[in-house]
Amino acid sequence: MNLSIHNDARKKSFKEQIVSAIQQLVRFGCSQALSCLFPVVIFASLAITQIIPLPILPRYDWLLIICLLMQWWMMHSGLETRDELKVITLFHIIGLALEIFKVHMGSWSYPEEGYFKILGVPLYSGFMYASVASYLCQAWRRLNVNLVKWPPFLVVVPLASAIYLNFFTHHYWVDVRWVLSALVLIVFWPSWVTYVVGGIRYRMPLVLSFMLIGFFIWIAENIATFFGAWEYPNQTDAWSLVHLGKVSSWLLLVIVSFLIVATLKQVKGKDLAGREAGH
After folding, report:
1. Are residues 29 and 41 in the same domain?
2. Terminal-residue alpha carbon distance, the chain
3. Global confidence as pTM
């Protein structure tokens, strides 16, 4: 009799654990979905404007207008803060500079017409990079992200700079992405990222989080090229899957994005701590 009661209690406890795990997963998914609002709008706009051509302006210009309106709405609705807008603007500039160079080198192209283009690159393209920064900032705030054993500033900044510069220099010199990837593993191996879901704090190795974000952005890249966001040379005649090797490029770009956001967050945190200590 007692054994039966004990087994029932244990089964109930296991069921409660399953229910709790599902609830936490749903909460985590909702936080991620809200954080991905800007990228989702971009993907939806790419799909809609390809299926239903809009009048008056070329497609690339409509995409720019949609991105600008989305950015304005997120600011005025309170979904983004002024500090986050500064970070997103920085990413827009960084991304646009990279796009202009890569298009010039023939890495990919924007074959459609557009009034708002710089050296063959439509201005909306910078928002695709900005949307990654938007996701990072939103997720950071919603999940109360905290970094454990974060490397020194004097290590992080040169490493992020070297990764970004390699996107340019490998066209003229040796591609050192694998050396940089090894350095990332060495530098960030002891680091963890912690986040809160439903009042419970979890943790994940930082290197694993880099890999997961990079992989999902590669998936997003396949969706984007399918809907004609841009075009690789091997996709000129017909769409094909983006080479898996691009995961390494996106992984390094995500690391640059994460390092910039993390560094700015830490600087902001120190400023706030200093002001509070001053009072």
Report:
1. no
2. 64
3. 0.75
Q: CB of 99 within 8 A of CB of 152?
A: no
What is the mean pLDDT for each group of 10 consecutive residues in the chain (279 residues)?
48 72 85 83 84 86 92 86 82 86 84 88 86 83 86 83 85 84 87 88 86 75 70 64 65 76 66 51
Same domain assignment for residues 31 and 122: no
- Decide if 249 is inside a domain: yes
d(CA 36, CA 43): 11
The pLDDT value given to residue 266: 65
- Number of domains into which the chain is organized: 2
Q: Find the domain containing 19 and state its range.
A: 1-35
Q: Is residue 115 part of a domain?
A: yes
Ramachandran region of residue 150, left (φ > 0), alpha (ψ -120 to 50) or beta? beta
Q: Which of 203, 200, 67 is nearest to 134 (CA)?
A: 67
Tell me: do 5 and 112 sit in the same domain. no
